Each structure stands twice: as C-alpha cells, then as structure tokens.
Amino acid sequence: MGGAGTGAARLFHFPTKEAHISRAATRALRALALALVALSASGCFRDRAGDAPEVTAAEQAAFAPPADSSLTPEQVDRYLRTTLAQVERIRAEGAEARKQAAAQAERARARPATDSGPRPRSARALWGDFVDASFVRAARKLGYQPAEMWYVRGRMSAVGAHLTGTRMDASRGQAVGLLREQAEAMRGTPGVTQAQIDAMLKAAEQAERQPAPGGAPPHLVQNLDALRRARPNLSPAAWVRVAAVASATGLSDLSKASQADAGRALDGIEQLYTHALENREPPVR
After folding, report:
1. CA distance 150 to 153
2. Number of neighbours of residue 29 by Cβ within 10 angstroms
3. Nearest to 98 by CA among 263, 254, 283, 273
4. Per-residue model confidence as pLDDT tens digits over 22-70
5. Distance (Å, whole) CA 259 – CA 94
6. What is the structure's pLDDT at 184?
7. Which residues contact 269 (CB under 8 A, 6 or more apart)?
8. Fewer CB atoms inside 10 A, N or C side of the chain?
C-alpha cells in the first residue's frame, strides 16, 4: 500500500522548466496522479478478499424485493447470522483497513491547496466502504443472497426508526405528567409565583395537544410481527439496539478508533447479536 503512493509520486514528477510543460498541464497531471493514488488506496482493502465488495449486477437481478416491503422470520434469522459473520470479518481485517484509510486521509491533507482535481475520499468514507463490503462478503460466504440481505438490513433499519419514534412518544406523555406534578407540588413554595406555575401548566397542555404520530404502515406492522415470530423473547428495546447496527451505528464510528476501543465495540455488537440469535434478551451495556 505504502509503495503505491511512493511509486506514483516518482512516476508523476513533472519539472515544468526542463520539459517546458505549462502550469495548467502540470496541475492537471498532478491531479490525475492523486486520483490514481486514491483509487489504488481504496482498492487495497476492498478487493483483498478475492470477491466483489459490492452486490453484483447478477446478484441484484436474482433477487426481487417484495412489493409490500415485508420481511419473513427466516430472513431475520439470516440477517442476524450475516451480521455476526460481518463482525468477525471486521475484527480480522479492521486494523489494516483503518491503517489504509488513515494513510489516505494523510495524503489528502498533504495535497497542495492549489491542486484543483478530484479530492481524495475521506478516511471515514473509505471505512464505510469497508464496513459495507464486509457485510456483502459475509452474506456471500454463508451462502446467502447478498442483495436480499442488503434489503433485509434496510427493512430492519426502518423498523428500528419506528420503534424509536414510538418510545419517544411514550416518553413525551410521561414528561407531560411529570411537568404537571411538579407544577402542583410547587404551589405555596416561597419564591414561586402563580404566574410561573401557570406557565408550567400551559407548557404541559401545549405538549399534550401535539398530534400523536399516526399508526404504523401495514408493512411495518407485518415486519414487527415477523420480528416477534422470529425471536419472541426479545423486547422492543432490544430490537431497537439490533436495528441501530443495521443502520451502521456502532460500526461506522470505528474509522478512527484504537484497536482496544474497536475490540470493545465489536464485543458489544457480537454479544447483542448472539443473544438475539439465541432468542435471549441481551443485557443492557
């Protein structure tokens, strides 16, 4: 990897006076050199496993997403297993991927401000590519359809967003009740005026009048039922945590993590998904 950057620097050295190359041409050639270095850098870890890092056109064509965006318990099971396999790939290959992404970021910082060519991709973006590729390759290694697992991951993320919204709405109701209790308890308290109490009660009333979110769309109701049938012992709170990983939360944040911090984060995700796979409520970390 390191040799690629050094070799490119030697190959694309452009002495303007000796070769009488215009400054504009020099800038263009240097931009091309940096673009080639960026491509070689991103390709270093994306193709090392020997299979395509993305869902191929043939795989995409072989899977037809259902028109109703539904999930089945079997798909949920395969998704859990795919994510556990993904965690193992990230554990094995993540240190090298972070190293290469950091080297790419360093090249981007060292690039002259006068160069107007394409900017090299950020370390976070390259790490995101690696995380996505690890999911696709994990599905493929398990014999699952990568396009299908990608679809399931998206549906899991949508279910998590719905469950989170439901919890927030319930919390709003609790907060309104608590505000009213506090207002009433403060009556007669020295230094607390009636106007202050009235303002608290008015705030509670306004919050209560906020429209509640509508019912879940049919496909979400169906998918929530699929989760319950797949793993009936898991609570909605546990599914929110599972779905957060489906949204790449936790994995995408490891681009600059130390090896120790990354290991702890992966241990937590592995524990969460192992419990879910075994139909056991995961512990709260």
Report:
1. 5
2. 15
3. 254
4. 444 444 434 434 433 333 333 444 444 347 889 999 999 999 999 999 9
5. 9
6. 76
7. 83, 87, 245, 250, 251
8. C
Q: How sure is the predictor about 208, in pLDDT bands with cuts at 50, 70 and 90?
A: low
Please give the radius of gyration of the chain, using alpha carbons only, rounded to the nearest integer. Answer: 26
pLDDT: is 186 or 128 the higher one?
Answer: 128
Residues 27, 116: contact at Cβ < 8 Å?
yes
Higher-pLDDT residue of 67 and 170 is 67
Kindly report the pTM of this predicted structure: 0.66
Centroid of chain to Cα 96: 20
Query: According to the 3-state scheme, what is the secondary structure of 211-272?
Result: CCCCCCCHHHHHHHHHHHHHCCCCCHHHHHHHHHHHCCCCCHHHCCCCHHHHHHHHHHHHHH
CA angle 132, 38, 137 (to 5 degrees): 20
Residue identified by tokens 């999930």 is 71
Confidence of residue 169 (pLDDT cuts 50, 70, 90): low
CA 197 to each of CA 44, 51, 176: distance values in angstroms, whole numbers, following the listed order: 64, 66, 14
CA distance readout (Å), 192 to 43, 90, 176, 180, 202: 66, 57, 20, 15, 16
